[in-house]
Every structure is written in structure tokens, then in C-alpha cells.
Write a structure and sequence with these properties.
Radius of gyration: 14 Å
CATH class: Mainly Alpha
Largest sheet: none
Distance between the termini: 11 Å
Number of strands: 0
CATH topology: Chromosomal Replication Initiator Protein Dnaa, Chain: A
CATH superfamily: DnaA protein, C-terminal DNA-binding domain
Order of helices and strands: HHHHH
Shape: globular
Structural class: mainly alpha
Number of domains: 1
Number of helices: 5
Strand content: under 5%
């Protein structure tokens, strides 16, 4: 089976969104949509974007492709979340999510190398 980076990144983006939504207690399928979502849900998608950029060390363009968004939107989301990190509770959640994502990525890498 041929490796498709864009498909892998899109699946990874959905997985990150799911983890963020669960951690923040949000049960709304609309956060997975590429359509405009209500403002009170934007931080879920923005947090997932930020985590993919920081933890996976992906460029804004690559994260944008994964989320089907323009790189400038990715930059804005990252800057927004960076500003929210001044809140200790929010920052604590992001630290936890970063750790979880790092573990998940490491486990996936181990599993995929065994195939």
C-alpha cells in the first residue's frame, strides 16, 4: 500500500481534534467539519492546529493541508492559542495534550514499523 502523506496528515488532524474535544469535554461533531463553526468551538480546532504544528513540527502549509485551511489561518490559530497559554488552566490542558500526542505518535511509529 502506497503511503499518502496528505491522507495520513488529515487522519492525524482528526485524531488530534478528537483528543482535544474529549479533554475539553466538548461533544460536538461540528468541530470535525471544514465549515465555519461557532466561536465557542473555535478553540478546539485552533488547539488541535497548534498541537499539530508544535508537537509534529509541521509547517503552517502542511498543517493547512491537513485541516484544509490556508496557511495564514493556521498562523492565526497558533498565535491565538499561544496567547491563551497565559491562562494556567488552559496551559495545563495543552501540556497534558502535548504529552498524550507525543505518546500516541511514538506508539504509532512503533506499530507502523512492525508491519
Amino acid at each position: 500500500m502506497k503511503y499518502d502523506k496528505n491522507n495520513y496528515d488529515a487522519v492525524l488532524a482528526k485524531m488530534i481534534i478528537a483528543n482535544v474535544a474529549l479533554d475539553f469535554g466538548v461533544n460536538n461533531i461540528r468541530v470535525f467539519s471544514n465549515e465555519k463553526i461557532p466561536a465557542h468551538l473555535c478553540y478546539i480546532r485552533q488547539s488541535a492546529i497548534y498541537l499539530m504544528h508544535i508537537v509534529c513540527q509541521y509547517s503552517y502549509a502542511r498543517v493547512g493541508t491537513a485541516f484544509n485551511l490556508h496557511a495564514s489561518t493556521i498562523a492565526y490559530a497558533c498565535k491565538t492559542i499561544e496567547n491563551f497559554r497565559d491562562d494556567q488552566v488552559f496551559d495545563g490542558k495543552l501540556v497534558h495534550l502535548e504529552s498524550c500526542l507525543q505518546v500516541n505518535l511514538a506508539q504509532f511509529a512503533i506499530g507502523s514499523s512492525e508491519s
